[in-house]
């Protein structure tokens, strides 16, 4: 009877070990993919691959998106304000 429970315990332990190894490999690959993406975006734009640079980039793109949404609503003055803000932020970042 002890051999049966030993076998079951060993099988469960090997399954848990396999699961943990698979998750570690997945998240390790995910980390490398995100790092490669950030390096690619930063290299293409000529900015530093830092969190602050990426946040400023996201804010500039968000401002441009707000300008586009205002244009679709027909609010031309608001469109000019958001587009000018987005272009200014992105120009500070890129140049």
TrEMBL record:
The keyword Transmembrane helix is annotated on this UniProt entry: yes
Annotated TM spans: 37-62, 74-94
Keyword entries, A-Z: Membrane, Transmembrane, Transmembrane helix
Entry annotated with the keyword Transmembrane helix: yes
Native organism: Halomonas koreensis
Protein name: MFS transporter
